[in-house]
Amino acid sequence: xxxxxxxxxxxxxxxxxGALASAALLGAGLLAAVPAAAQAAYPNKTITIIVPFAAGxxxxxxxxxxxxxxTAELGQTVIVDNRAGxxxxxxxxxxxxxAADGYTLFMGTVGTHAINAALYKKMPFDPVKDFAPLTRxxxxxxxxxxxxxxxxxxxxxxxxxxxxxxxxxNFASSGNGSSIHLSGELFKSxxxxxxxxxxxxxxxxxxxxxxxxxxxxMFDNMPSAIQHVRSGKLRAIAVTTARRSPELPDxxxxxxxxxxxxxxxxxxxxxxxxxxxxxxISTLNAAIVKVLAKPDVKKQINDQGAEVYTETPAQFADFIxxxxxxxxxxxxxxxxxxx
Length: 339
Hints:
By secondary structure, the chain is α/β, with parallel strands linked by helices. 48% of the residues lie in helices and 19% in strands. Strands 1, 2, 3, 4, 5, 6, 7, 8, 9 and 10 form a ten-stranded mixed β-sheet that branches. Helix 2 (58-74) packs across helix 9, helix 4 (110-119) packs across helix 11 and helix 6 (179-191) packs across helix 11 (313-334).
């Protein structure tokens, strides 16, 4: 009896230990499953897209179109947060320091990710190391526009006027180091004219002063200028791309209008903070590409004078590297510097 009792007690102890071990393993399994479940549930709250320029400019217009599409596609509200200043660097810094959880995105530009590193000696973020590329969103021609009160209608007339009045012609931009600014600097260096750069905190306030003739010209992104051209409030002189824009087929390129070899194109793309999980990156890329493929979204963007462009994160990263090399040379050749 005593042996049987001892055996029974030992069996109970083994069973209890086994049960505890099984429970522990089950608990560990459940804990291990939590991150996977959390990832599978992405997104489950509001997503913010930081735009590094003021409301009303091209970056903002494109970001809001994408935000609206993503809200429907992902089933969560996607909002835009404008953080203007320092050629996009203020917004870029804020986005680079955000939690890498997929709930803060960044609408980057050729300025923030291919130009600024060559212009600024001290960057508040690393455009390569601090960000995970998602996809390009659009390519955008810049449009050389003038207030109709200015005494020139063509590129050649503008150059002649600037040479006759050195330092008196002002050109506006959306900020130091923006593609709009660099388009003007490239034009200056290739035509040997003296124009004064007037930077603003975004395209919208710059266009406002251009409409009021406080500044004479601007190499604006087409989406924020095209409506004013169509209404007659601004005069389109030329586009900065190698080919004419289908939206303004009668407007010549700067190259064909008197400055051979001139070409400058803006692009806009979506980024996430660098340490964002690969699964979230994949989800966001797929969602943005799907949104941009919708006919109504394409039309919205095309109507702005922009061209939808999507790619894989790896393709976007490779494109940025090539653009950085190109624009670094433009900055060096133009002598532009923000420090």
